[in-house]
């Protein structure tokens, strides 16, 4: 942003498509403190583990969610303009603070990636011939582990505190399941599985 600052016109609107927002929004506020341009963060919740133009999709943004992260003093006209931009690409818009954004994506994006990567990493320590017996379930569960490790290292570092809180919550859920299995508590196991199924079914319909 500091590099493009000299080229920004008055009342220019600048956005990004990064996976974390608290840091970049703070830095943008400082960089543009004495400039009339506006920075407003965007996070289109669309993409895949694949990178490069050869994996481009013309309909990538259609009916996908996009999160805007305005600050308290972000001009209403800037929000409306960026909203119109993403809506024209077929996206559904939600606006939250940068901090709330980072809390949300730590749970619905960053934690799932960590779980997929951790599972794949664990299985890599087991008998490698097992992978030849795996069905679609393992491939579906670990698909996003194929994402760029360098990129994800940066994402996790930038959203470290929120990711750690999400991990704490996930650890508690696993401890609950483990305790239920140790205690032969079939109703507790069933309740957890049902809760998970309900959430997944609702996710598929949304």
Walk me through this protein's architecture.
The protein is mainly α. The protein folds into 2 domains: 5-97, NAD(P)-binding Rossmann-like Domain (Rossmann fold, 3-Layer(aba) Sandwich), CATH 3.40.50.720; 101-205, 6-phosphogluconate dehydrogenase C-terminal fold (Orthogonal Bundle), CATH 1.10.3660.10. It has helices at 22-31, 76-88, 98-123, 136-142, 149-158, 160-182, 186-205, and strands at 13-14, 38-39, 41-44, 65-69, 92-95. The strands form 2 sheets. Strands 3-4-5 form a 3-stranded mixed beta sheet, with helices on one face. It is elongated. The model has no long low-confidence stretch (mean pLDDT 94).
Topology:
Elements: E1 13-14, H1 22-31, E2 38-39, E3 41-44, E4 65-69, H2 76-88, E5 92-95, H3 98-123, H4 136-142, H5 149-158, H6 160-182, H7 186-205
Parallel strand pairs: 1-2, 4-5
Antiparallel strand pairs: 3-4
